Amino acid sequence: MLDKIIDDRRKKVVILKENGIDPYPARSKKSLAISFILNSFPKLLKSKKSVAISGRVKSVRDQGKILFVDLEDLSGKIQVIFHRNVIKDFSILKSTLESGDFIWVSGKVLKTQRGEKSIEAKNTQILTKSLRPIPTEYFGIEDIETKLRKRYLDLILNKETRDLFIKKSKFWASIREYLNQNNFMEVETAVLENTPGGAEAEPFITHHNALNEDFYLRISLEIALKKLMVGGFEKIYEIGRIFRNEGIDAEHLQDYTQLEFYWAYADYNELMKFVQKMYQYVIKKTFGTLVIDNKGKKINWSGKWKTVDYCKIFSQNNNNLNPVTATKEQLYKRAKELNLDVDKSFEKGRLIDLIFKKIRSTLIQPCFLINPPVDIEPLAKRNFEKPEIVERFQVVACGTELGKGFSEANDPIDQRQRFESQMKLREKGDKEAQMLDEDFIEALEYGMPPTAGFGLSERLFSILSDKPIRETVFFPPMKKKD
Questions:
Q1: CB 68 within 8 A of CB 74
Q2: What are the Cα distances from residue 358, in Å, to 122, 189, 314, 392, 436?
Q3: pLDDT, tens only, 290-344
Q4: Residue 108: in which H helix or E strand, if any?
Q5: Is residue 180 classed as helix, strand or coil in its secondary structure?
Q6: How far apart (Å, rounded) are the C-alpha atoms in residues 196 and 199?
Q7: Confidence at residue 139, expressed as pLDDT on a 0 to 100 scale
Q8: Which of 373, 272, 268, 269 lies closest to 315, judged by CA?
Q9: What CATH superfamily classification does 156-305+365-472 receive?
Q10: What pTM value is reported for the model?
Q11: Distant-in-sequence, close-in-space partners of 340: CB < 8 Å, separation ≥ 6
Q12: What is the reported pLDDT for 378?
């Protein structure tokens, strides 16, 4: 059936060409947004001036001597009326025009007897002849896999999907706006790295033919940006793609966009105040409100967020087991009691993190989760008075992490020791443990000022939109179809 439809449409391309009409012209005439026509309709009706629009044909209704066509662009949809005694080559238009085609139209606005805002076409031009039929809006696309593989069809059919990605653009634009207003400078750093670092994640590997060298796709923006802080910059940020070779779920993608910014002479206390204001600015700019629905709950991002101590809440929820003083054996036993998927090879930091995820799921309203054990954060500065914890916070809401920041470790001796501990974990089979980065250690040895750093990913947007993260990405990675 589809083959027959495509073949029929191909024949219509031939008909257009035989009649001297280019079905795929390179140029089109200037046109207005349909929303402008609709919003200015009374004025345009009174002036009787001709207007011009371009868009995709959504439907065609043949009434013999008249064609009624619904035309849509990104801004809206309007009815266009074609009369046989007005339009040149009306018969060709009538026999070839179908849903999915792009056309340009000029004419005067009018209201039909039913009161529908319309344009009475005087001139028209085919801009693109479509060869495949668009699914009808009534039936749409139900299968989520088809929506993700053929996102263009989802965008054609669903205004809600288009609006989602317009909001996503506003989300990133408002982050840039906020940081620029606060004198941060945007930078770009390399995607290919000799040593991946800045996060605990398994990297992708690729081969550089010209250098005959294997490289890693970056798993974080952190290390390169810190080197720029060593170089003398004081307020910088990057919004870029990062790549992590890990599992797929509602909150994780393998390649995604992340923001990281670094602020010299600030610590994590100043950073928390700044981040709260930034989130509130971005959410209000993007969604128009600070009260967001998520899984049937109202999440209120306004006001001052509460602070939750990592070790205290861990202890309260795990039979007074303190993550700092607990042994690996005690943590393993507790993880098994919670029916977590753990292995005897797991070290203390990994066990603490897995157990805490059970607690994190109970933190629904926005809060700052602060001061975790040093075992789980190799890049944050130790607390001077309590060196067993680090000056780190996470923005937590809706039961998940939505951003992380800390006072950055800038002691090269301590940083080397912590990297060496991570390397021991890698030697035991932990593919997500961080690698020893000699180049970064050398940079720190030249001196990095006291610095606060923060990062968030597009997971924040997906949670604010109350959608799985794959549905907030135009073209997520998917297996090939058989």
A1: no
A2: 66, 35, 10, 19, 30
A3: 999 999 999 999 999 999 999 999 999 999 999 999 999 999 999 999 999 988 8
A4: strand 102-111
A5: helix
A6: 8
A7: 54
A8: 373
A9: Bira Bifunctional Protein; Domain 2 (3.30.930.10)
A10: 0.92
A11: 354, 355, 358
A12: 85
Kindly report the CA angle at 2 between 61 and 13, in degrees rounded to 5? 65
pLDDT at 233: 98
* 328: three-class secondary structure by DSSP: helix
Q: Which residues contact 407 (CB under 8 A, 6 or more apart)?
A: 267, 268, 271, 380, 381, 390, 391, 392, 450, 451, 452
Which candidate, 74, 75, 76, 95, places its Cα nearest to that of 84? Answer: 95
Q: Which residues of 403-439 are buried (b: 16+ CB within 10 A; e: fewer)?
A: bbbbbbbbebebbbebbebbeebeeeebebbbbbbee
Q: Where are the domains of the chain?
A: 2-134, 156-305+365-472
Q: Which residues pair with 394 in a beta bridge?
A: 369, 404
The H or E element that residue 145 is part of is helix 144-149
The pLDDT tens digits for 92-134 are 999 999 999 999 999 999 999 999 999 999 999 999 999 999 8
Burial of 114 (0-12, 13-18, 19+ CB in 10 A): exposed
Average pLDDT over residues 461-477: 95
Homologous superfamily (CATH) for 2-134: Nucleic acid-binding proteins (2.40.50.140)
- pLDDT value of position 481: 77
How far is 443 from 19, CA to CA, in rounded Å? 70
Max distance between CA atoms of the chain, in angstroms, equals 89
pLDDT tens, residue by residue, 131-149: 999 887 545 667 788 888 8
Cβ neighbours of residue 287 under 8 Å, at least 6 residues apart? 167, 464
**H or E segment and range at residue 42:** helix 41-47
How far apart, in Å, are the Cα atoms of 60 and each of 160, 380, 464? 23, 62, 38
Question: Closest Cα partner for 259 from 225, 227, 292?
Answer: 225
In terms of residues, how long is the chain? 482
Q: CA 130, CA 153: separation in Å to the nearest integer?
A: 13
